Amino acid sequence: SSALMVSPAIALAFIPLLLTIIIRCRYYFVLFYRAVLVRIWKDCVTGLSREERAYQYVLTHATPGDPDSILDAFDVWCSKVEFISNIGPKKGKILDRLLMEQSPLTVLELGAHCGYSTVRIARSLPLGARLYSLEMDARNAAIAEKIIRLAGFDDDTVELIVNPSDEVIPLLRSDYGLERLDFVFMDHWKKCYLPDLQMLEGSGLLRKGSMIVADNVLFPGAPKFLRYIRKSGLYEWKVHRATLEYSKGIRDGMAELVYQGIK
Amino acid sequence: MKKGRRDPEAKGGEREEEEEQPEMKRCKTAKRRKNIKNENARKMEEEEEEAEVRNAKRKKKHAKREKGEREEREEDGGKRRVKEKAREGRRRTHTRVETSSEPETSEEDELEEESEESEVRPESLSPEELEMLKEAVYERKKLVQGLRGKPWPMKEKLVTLRESQEFVEKYEGALGKGKGRKIYAYKVMMSKKWMKFQRDFENFKTACIPWEMKIKEIESHFGSSVASYFIFLRWMYGINMILFCLTFGLVMVPEALMGRPYGTIPRKTVPRAEAASAMDFAVLWDFGGYAQYSVLFYGYYNNQRAIGWLKFRMPLSYFLVGVGTVAYSYMVVIRTMARNANESGVGDDNSFNFSWKMFTSWDYLIGNPETADNKFASITTSFKEAILEEQESCKDDNIHLTRFLRVLANFLVLCCLAGSGYLIYFVVRRSQKFALEGLETHTWWERNEVNMVMSLLGMFCPMLFDVISALENYHPRVALQWQLGRIFALFLGNLYTFIIALMDEINLKREEEKIIKFNITMWEASLYNATGSENSTALPVTFHPADVPRGPCWETMVGQEFVRLIISDTMTTYITLLIGDFLRAVLVRFLNYCWCWDLEAGFPSYSEFDVSGNVLGLIFNQGMIWMGAFYAPCLPALNVLRLHVSMYLQCWAVMCCNVPQERVFKASGSNNFYMAMLLVILFLSTLPAIYTIVTIPPSFDCGPFSGKKRMFDVIQETLESDFPAWFSKVFSYASNPGLVLPFILLMVLAIYYLQSTSKSYKEANVDLKKKLQTQNEENKRKNKLAALKAQTDLEEARAATQTAEQKNNNASLQHQHAEEEEDLGSSQRKNGRPPPSVRHQDGRPPATRAPAPRTLHPDTHRSLGYLPGGGFPQQREPRMHRVPSLQRH
């Protein structure tokens, strides 16, 4: 048995490695703590879901009818209290800028979650524009609906569709009467980025100049999606490098694609 | 007579023609463009395999074509004779000559190439024509030489170069006469062959450089910093090869061939107690058993003064090789450093920071798009950082925090260093305890604890330093230097702790040796007594050498320790490579298909090649070789093997599992830094070796110096017995302190003198640089004044011509349109043409191009002509803006 026993000095020599790993991955540990451990704990204690807790906070801390104050309340809650992977204020600024430049009339949002990004997009839309927001989960969609109405956007501006994206996208043309999409924002399941993009291409809703923005392409990351857009040649694309929302050290990126069409 | 006449005349009149005939020029350029295409096609052809055959064919073709052209020219001449229309004829001739002087002509020429007409006969030229031809050839040659400095676009340069070369090639041969011409042609041919041979030889030489292609490939993928590591590795391999040759050829092989064979004397025999396990793999792996009692280690060598029929002086050779390897290493390192210093002596990075960044930051050896992207990004960030630095140098708001963090980081690093030092010390003490108790009772882990701990600390501590250095917020280059310094300190601390522990062990062994020596004399005496009492006339009982008691032989112990250290270090390096790089790459690659985040772009990612760590590892490895080579002659051989394997393994690993660095930096500047570190390590590693050689007496019963008081006594011995008496006398005089001290003094003075001269040269350099700069500024100012003057002239001219211009507006408009169709090449050549005047399409006020600015800046038009059709508005723009500033002045 003693033949297998490593001497304590050799074990001590591994301390620097351990320290290095701890320091290197500290942001991931913090993220794990905030996004998983705290969430489980609060779920058990309050009996509410995370989104409902966020909604309660927003309801008590934000001014109804003021999108900015709602977004601020969300940001405070997500950075101070718990963690929800919204787009966040920093990447949100990039999104705002892109929307300002593009001023799209028809916008599709995949993955509304609890409505943060929907409000964010809706407030920078031009007059007469319409935002279709998809959410798969019914409970989240209910909260998103409340948040959107709280921010003062009516049914004409924002239409919330409670269905998985792969079911809705083929129906967009027929059921929702869409001719083209000027702007698509993807923030749902990272694995669905690529199939949904291909479905959008197939549906013929993308025209030359249509912009597609995909969040979290580096962390958690959508490698197949990136590989596809790199190869396909249908897009002019770049990745805006930033950090993960409400976290300083984890690198993340937001992909901006401009559809060029088949030449 | 009249046949050859056209050519010189044509060349002579070329310049005036340029001014006269824009239309003709245009068609010429069209042809030229075609030729460029042809040229490209030809190049592609050339790259194919059967290049030589094709070459031969082409030559034939070319020759034929030339003949055809000449015939044509003759025709022209004939026409001219008949028609006597001078101008017309001349024009045609010009076109002909122009086309013929180009590399490939259009198909029509090819069709006419059947004729059997002879070539231009230079004898038929009159002397003045010959002169003119000579002059033209000379002009062309001059043009070719000065082409590089001409401010023309690259395309035009290429075209001109090709034209001129063809022309020179063709007409140079015509200059000689008769026999001389043949000799000349022969000479030209030979010189061409010679050049080709030289080029081939160069290629051959590059092919002979080991691993050159591999390194080039890596360089193209990872930039020059990674390649610099491999070049360094190769250089190290070369040095080790020479060290290996020295020790192998002058020490190991003679001893193995001519020395006493194994088993004849005790030091060459495995002791009886160890004999049973001497061939076990575990023992051999620890370099005990048969490995210990072989030429690989110091203890095996006999102190016999001369061995074999060659009377080879083994101890002397051993000593001299030991000294020679170190001396050679010093020489090579210092020579390389000096050469590097010469190469990089002129650069000063401080004065024109942004210009340097702008014009010199690209790494032209990159051939991989991903690396190029990285390099691009790194240049961008370096610009950003430089701008930020400039801003920060103006305002320093949070200096206290930064300072505090830096101090903290250094404190942490020091703690880490102290901890690792203590750990090694602790381990070494423990191993001594184990050694006293007997190694057999302990496990493998415990026996190899020292090496393991040293390797592990050497591997992990740099990572921790890297993490800590993030606190300091230094510029990457500075951070790299700090990192290198810290790793250096760590390795050095570890190495010296190890050496100190070894010294302790040496002392222990020497104590043991004293006891054993005493015991042996007792044993011998008792043996003698025993034999004497039994039978005084009989020979003393001969023992088998394995049974003879012997001393511990500390030298072999030291050698063994170093060999074990090298082996464990090598193993650690390779295992790290396989686990840290290869396994990681495999996991990242294949787990990525089923993982919840992007492993490739996100967290673990692929590893980068750690240049600094690898270089330091290499340097310290070399240091250990230098330290241990005296006691273990096998070390250079082992190192050569290690480096050889490293080269292949790391080349493979870097290409298959690493990604290009995010911060690709150029390595040219850091080469000497590595060399300086190598020098320091060389010094620090020879120090203990020399200390042991000089101060500790060699073991009494092993090694080539046994029986002597000190190891270097071998020199004394040789001087006394192998050289004539006068020589040793001279030597003893020469080694007299009275002579040595003045000599050292002289050397110091010489060094001081040389240093001060180099300093003054440096100052002179700086002064000259300043002068250049001021002169430059002066020139700029002058140019500015001249330009302003030209502006005033231009304004006047414009005012004057404005009215005239409006009249022939329509005509010039058409002219303009025609011109816009033209391509680059043509517009560059139109210097002499009357300037196109007006452009009303863009709604600007009409303006003329007065001759004044063109004479001042003949190149503006040239460069602007690069943009087809777009040149004029651009050119007009600054003028429009400059007008008010002119009025202000």
Automatic annotation (TrEMBL), chain A:
Q: Tell me where it resides.
A: Endoplasmic reticulum
Main EC class of this protein?
Answer: transferase
Family label = Belongs to the class I-like SAM-binding methyltransferase superfamily. Cation-dependent O-methyltransferase family.
Q: Which reaction does it catalyse?
A: a catechol + S-adenosyl-L-methionine = a guaiacol + S-adenosyl-L-homocysteine + H(+)
Biological process annotations from GO:
catecholamine catabolic process; developmental process; dopamine metabolic process; methylation; sensory perception of sound
Gene behind this chain?
Answer: tomt
Top-level division of the source organism's lineage = Eukaryota
Q: What is the lineage of its organism?
A: Eukaryota, Metazoa, Chordata, Craniata, Vertebrata
Q: Which CDD domains match?
A: AdoMet_MTases
- Name of this chain's protein: catechol O-methyltransferase
**Keywords in UniProt for this one?**
Catecholamine metabolism, Endoplasmic reticulum, Hearing, Membrane, Methyltransferase, Neurotransmitter degradation, S-adenosyl-L-methionine, Transferase, Transmembrane, Transmembrane helix
InterPro entries for the chain? SAM-dependent_MTases_sf, SAM_O-MeTrfase
Q: Which GO terms describe its molecular function?
A: catechol O-methyltransferase activity
Please give the chief subcellular localization of this protein: endoplasmic reticulum
What EC number(s) has UniProt assigned to this enzyme? 2.1.1.6
Membrane spanning stretches: 6-29
| Matches recorded under Pfam families | Methyltransf_3
Q: Name one GO cellular component term.
A: endoplasmic reticulum
